[in-house]
Amino acid sequence: MKIAIASGKGGTGKTTVAVNLSLSLQDAQLLDCDVEEPNCNLFLKREMEPITEVTTVIPEILEENCTYCKKCSDFCRFNAIATLPNKIMTFPALCHSCGGCMMVCPEGAIQECEIVTGIIRKSTTKDQTGPELYEGLLDIGQTMASPVIGKVKKYIDPTRTAIIDAPPGTACPVLTTLEDVDYCILVTEPTPFGLHDLKLAVEVARVLNIPHGILINRSGSGDDSVEKYCADEGIEVLMKIPQDTRIARLYSEGIPFVEEMEEWKEKFMQLYISIKDRYGRSEKA
């Protein structure tokens, strides 16, 4: 079963939930798809090894063949190519690698050029306890996170439970992360800001037709607007993690709180069973 942990904004405790949930399960995979800033391993402290590079294809202009007809730049909806009267320029950071520019070029003046945009790393086999961790890391200066996320998800073992830590927000990287998941836990905080971004995240889950529920982190620290919203919208509140100084202290020390507060392992396990019983497929837990 594939369960994504997402949130409408950063700082809600999404990674905390992903790490503690994965540590509470048997034989789980944890996939860190927050590729601009993967931080699950700040808590797991695993030895990681690179297993593959992520590459993408961008256009390379053969100016000796180019007649500056503008067909390529007119075609590109992402403005990755600009044609001047006697010059053509490309902007790789904007390119979505669709290959359309090559298809419309009548002069054969565009060819594919492969560049590295990130790497995938995996926890080594030296540590056999806890979840198997995969993380994507987008290269500095690169902007296209989705290909790296897609590559991370290639390592999901369909016979195991996969916990997927999504990027914050509701942009393309989140859509790539949530594609094909069985369930999405939306983590929020009980504040007006949390509610605002939660509504955006709920809309994404609904558009993608993904079953979802809410986990309220730092419960008791704000107001009840999130719970009222969930009641009005018929969205299940799956769990509340209270505002607790012990949990906060463990977080600040980079320690998953289930490791010192054993009762929470049972709570996360029950959360997983509840979701799996209703939305899981036939794979083993």
TrEMBL record:
UniProt KW keywords: ATP-binding, Nucleotide-binding
Pfam families associated with the record: CbiA, Fer4
Annotated ranges, domain 4Fe-4S ferredoxin-type: 57-81, 86-115
Keyword Transcription: no
Gene3D superfamilies: 3.30.70.20, P-loop containing nucleotide triphosphate hydrolases
Top-rank lineage group of the source organism: Archaea
Molecular function, one GO term: ATP binding
PROSITE patterns: 4FE4S_FER_1 (PS00198), 4FE4S_FER_2 (PS51379)
Name of the protein in question: ATP-binding protein
